[in-house]
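Budget justification note: compute hours in this period were largely spent on complex prediction jobs such as the one shown. Inputs:
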Amino acid sequence: MPEAPEVAKVLAALEEEIRGAEIVSASITHPSLCSNLPADEFEVQLIGEHFNEFHRLGKYLIFEMDNHDLVAHLRMEGKFLVLSGQEEFDALDPIKDKKHIHAVFGLSDGRLLCYKDTRKFGRMGLYDKPADWHDLPALAKVGKDALDQNLTAEELEQKAKRRKIPVKTLLLDQSFMAGIGNIYADEILFAAGISPLTPADHLDLEDWKNILVCTRMILSRSYSMGGTTLRTFAYGNHQQGGFQNELKVHSRKGACDECGTPIEQTRINGRSTWYCPTCQKEK
DNA sequence: AAGTTCCCCTGTTAGC
DNA sequence: TGCTAACAGGGGAACT
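Corresponding output:
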């Protein structure tokens, strides 16, 4: 479940390892991984390309190459592994690892960049370079990143005032604000003292200022802790996060840290949702 | 325009 | 103990 902090950790680790590297071979064994091109064409177009620049928008990873931009979304379980070479690949566990590697990119120094995704939900798109990477087709519907300093509470309030859906559902809408997933939506609303069930149009400008401050505080804190590892998240091949130890409501059973009221679990728009009925008021 | 439902996947967990 | 059903979840398509 990589959300903005986890995607940022993955991207930073990759940039450290493969910035400037050239792709000399490409093998895609799960064709639907490629969202906008046939897999064979995808493979051909990547040959000779270099990983020049690394960007993140919401939960998307953007690799600027020479003639293309590669846009990847890890969804729930996608991972990039950087292996020293074929020997290390051959030594992988066939059931736990090899079986779930759906793409292997050979680099000019002999290393292998592998994409592993147990549930095959992740996607990659390869596009001709646009003038601005914000213009990439895969990102057309993605709103401003939650950590974008140009994002204001005023525009959130404007967008939200015509929406009757629960505020939690709106926080998960990537066209509203990008980068928040199920874990941080719960944590942000706890920090803001707002019930996830509150209809979005019941919130005023002060509420949105509050939500935006809490969003930035929590996402930044989580990034500094290495992200949240609840199930399987890891970056830099094996490194796990630490923010799961600081979660106040998400996936927690038992008493609220602040007031002792039992944390409630419910389902909002099909998503498991945790909140404190005392600390978080419905408006 | 806004909201709802279904689908994609497979490993893990809950329940009988 | 062993089986099955439910669950986890982001985003996109199709629908009302």
